Amino acid sequence: xxxxxxxxxxxxxxxxxxxxxxxxxxxxxxxxxxxxxxxxxxxxxxxxxxxxxxxxxxxxxxxxxxxxxxxxxxxxxxxxxxxxxxxxxxxxxxxxxxxxxxxxxxxxxxxxxxxxxxxxxxxxxxxxxxxxxxxxxxxxxxxxxxxxxxxxxxxxxxxxxxxxxxxxxxxxxxxxxxxxxxxxxxxxxxxxxxxxxxxxxxxxxxxxxxxxxxxxxxxxxxxxxxxxxxxxxxxxxxxxxxxxxxxxxxxxxxxxxxxxxxxxxxxxxxxxxxxxxxxxxxxxxxxxxxxxxxxxxxxxxxxxxxxxxxxxxxxxxxxxxxxxxxxxxxxxxxxxxxxxxxxxxxxxx
Length: 349
Fold this sequence. Notes:
Elements: H1 30-48, E1 58-63, H2 70-77, E2 84-91, H3 97-107, E3 119-122, H4 134-141, E4 147-155, H5 162-179, E5 184-192, H6 199-210, H7 221-239, E6 242-253, E7 266-276, H8 298-310, E8 313-314, H9 315-321, H10 323-339
Helix pairs in contact: 1-10, 6-7, 7-8
């Protein structure tokens, strides 16, 4: 998806190349900037105000940078003085890993909010599911993350490789649950429409919900998908003695704003917060009684998930009603795109 060897990436254009980019993408829209600013940046700022983060100067960040690394730039530019992002990023590219790493170090490292220990791996996220893959070994060797940004843009479980993606997510979360003692955030973005989902796989996860929530049948398809994903993550976090809070849920229709009768899907953007309960100790032999204090919260958390999904922020509607906010976000993304080598006079949104 991302061409990290593009010489105009990150706003640094060689003298021999004066031609600016004129092709814009869905993640250049003001509504995607709403996600970056009103969800990712907002909740990161709240996290950094907690006592546990007072002396943490390097935020460990995992994600997929995107064609212009806009997500990292938005978070980095708004960090308090003295704090940096140390990212471990995955990108699939026809170029070699050394080429990609050279570009990152020569371009992105020029920004003072990026840690020199940051690196990018030329690999697919699904490789995390493979035993002893380079990605899996690297994640085990690195510190636990404070921010994880799984911005899939497409379906979370597509027909081609849905189980591999879900297995990789669980592997990543398990590493976090075991090693991260501080509160941390997960940004999760995915598309949900019937055409791009493995519906049989979805039914498996829905079975878990039907055991607890009769209200599910009253929800529309997109809400069912959103509830299924969050309940799946919740059950895995509870099993490990991890408190989970659904902090924010936003959504918007794919592409241009669609008519009601169009069968187009929605894109969800979620912010989840996790915190380990250090009082939870499980005896593997079951000889000692085990009480999981987090399990007592599961039903209440599940009800809150339904409420968050049912009352998700409809981003298109928010920006349509608040022109001032729309223009602010538009100017914000235009500034970033201008620095990234785009001809913003051609900006279509």
